[in-house]
Design goal:
heterodimer, A: 234 residues, 81% helix, globular, B: 122 residues, mainly alpha, 0% strand
């Protein structure tokens, strides 16, 4: 997200890739509805796989795709700011459950980032990769900025957050079922903290209450972690 | 027109975030500061403007679309990823499954007590 530069004009080729991305997203979204909202039918993952496959298969440089794709990335910054709206909407819900909410959120978030960093240390990952993994508890557009600030790899940080989100959404229902975690607020909170935007989008489909807690957890956790990490890593 | 106003709210928050970052010289990303500023501003204003709700809900609902180019961009990291794919998958697996359980479990343990005390306060 090179927010300080003007985007390059996408031109014929860039516009083609931009439109293809939009068309794939739309098509895959319709397909997911047809597949009864199956968790593995994520337009994001399959769209990216198809596009990456095309680029590799046709031997097209990534930079040529990015002429168009970058335009969508600029909008990500605005989507991130939009998280403020559900946080404001649910201010009463968080106030009512503030102590358990913040306790569970801080522990869960520390555990998600901490376990990743510690394991990365044990597996001999270099410093930049460890800093990158520290951001895996933050929603991706924020993770990009934080990774940049603490000396990680921004693109990898976003990628890891997205993969974590998709994987988390797949396994969460099983975990909740096996351990008898039936409180919708608890489920929403865990999805928001660990699986971020992707889990939140999934949670909204299940119920408004789960969704609002997930959105809130994602937003509050993202902001708090972003505020804390630079001080831990610098 | 409403949509323009909504976009303006978001851009203004982002602008304020960039300004605060520059002035305070903090290592916090501008979009994060912008969220804090937006929530504070909404608190002062007292409600969410119609246009901001329209734009905000649209952007949040279709966030996945804006992530697609990011994931495609990971092609550039192919060489780095190929080396660390197995350990990275293990790390992601553990650091996703465990916190999902722990976060939900702690909240579920703590939350009913709070509801009870609230009930008494009423």
């Amino acid at each position: 997200m090179r927010l300080t530069e003007l985007p390059a004009w996408p031109g014929l080729e860039g516009l083609f890739w931009l439109l293809l991305t939009l068309a794939l997203y739309r098509g895959l979204s319709i397909l997911r509805t047809r597949l009864k909202e199956k968790a593995w039918a994520q337009p994001l993952i399959w769209g990216a796989i198809i596009l990456a496959g095309l680029l590799v298969g046709l031997d097209i440089e990534l930079a040529r795709y990015q002429l168009g794709g970058d335009w969508l990335i600029y909008i990500l910054a605005l989507s991130t700011v939009s998280i403020g709206v559900p946080i404001y909407d649910n201010r009463h819900a968080i106030r009512a459950a503030a102590v358990p909410f913040l306790t569970a959120m801080c522990l869960g978030s520390t555990l998600a980032a901490g376990s990743a960093v510690v394991m990365a240390g044990l597996l001999d990952f270099e410093a930049a990769l460890r800093a990158t993994l520290a951001t895996k508890s933050i929603t991706s557009p924020m993770a990009y900025g934080v990774a940049e600030e603490i000396g990680g790899l921004p693109v990898l940080a976003m990628g890891i957050v997205i993969v974590t989100g998709n994987f988390g959404v797949l396994v969460a229902p099983k975990i909740f079922q096996v351990f008898g975690l039936t409180d919708p607020r608890a489920q929403g909170l865990a999805l928001g903290v660990v699986t971020h935007g992707i889990g939140t989008a999934e949670a909204v489909r299940r119920s408004a209450l789960i969704g609002s807690f997930a959105g809130l957890a994602m937003g509050v956790n993202g902001v708090l972690t972003s505020l804390v990490l630079p001080f831990v890593f610098l | 027109m409403q949509i323009l106003l909504g976009l303006a709210c978001l851009c203004l928050s982002l602008l304020a975030g960039e300004a605060v970052k520059d002035i305070l010289q903090v290592a916090i990303p501008a979009p994060v500061l912008a969220v804090v500023i937006l929530v504070a501003a909404l608190g002062v204003y007292g409600r969410v403007p119609e246009g901001l709700r329209l734009v905000g809900e649209f952007l949040l609902r279709h966030m996945a679309l804006f992530f697609i180019p990011v994931l495609v961009g990971m092609l550039a990291l192919y060489d780095v990823l190929r080396e660390i794919l197995a350990p990275l998958s293990l790390i992601i697996f553990v650091s996703t499954v465990v916190p999902l359980f722990v976060t939900a479990w702690i909240f579920q343990k703590l939350a009913p007590k709070l509801e009870a005390s609230e009930h008494e306060a009423d």
